[in-house]
Amino acid sequence: MRGLGGAVIMRHELRIIGTMPGSTLLGILLPIVLAALTQGLFAAAVPTTSADGTGGAELAVPGMAVAFAALGVGRPGFAFFRDHAWGTWDRLRASPASTLDIVVGKVAPWVIMSLVQMLGLFAVAVPLLGFRVSGSWPALVLVLLATALCLSVFGALLAAVSRTSQQLNSVSGLCGLVLAALGGALVPLPALPNWVSSVAPALPTHWAVRGLHMVVLERGGLADAAVPLGALLGFTAVFAALTTLRFRSAESKIYWG
Q: Which GO terms describe its molecular function (predicted)?
């Protein structure tokens, strides 16, 4: 019954996401526009070890994919606040679903949403920007999936520590910007101050960008992406553990629209 309850919650959340196709498309269009505008700037940072024919698009597109996933880190958190605003949270708690089922059912659809947007960005970039992947597409998908999972679980953690939707909005916005900027997604690390290179490995976005660069730029396969994948899964485990420790299903949340 518990697993079934989580599946029902997940389907319901997916239906809600499905009523917002504009948001999904915007998550593809905005990064592709920014990638198109900045690929000339990114071209100067393409490593000399990259595959032949690699240009700025191969650096800009993965960066924008990770950056916008990070900037949207608060989306899973707002799924929890929405139920409090609608008065349906107590019904979820009274259902056969456990707290874990509820959290997984709320977060998993946003993992899928983030993955779809990043894959959509890569697919659109192929004909529009001449983007190409020199390495393994399965490795690319795994890195994107690990990135989506990590950032979505982090979003659940932000919801767990936030009391109001305004707090969540502020904290997620700040965290998303820090993750995108200092992780080397918005701007390549070589173009940033030297101290950023020392801080970047402490952020999951750094490993997401590194994994994508290995696959896209350096002909990488699953073995080459193993370290970034391991780092992303390690961050995910830490975020999940902290969410478990802090999340209180009986704690009321205040939604201010």
A: ABC-type transporter activity
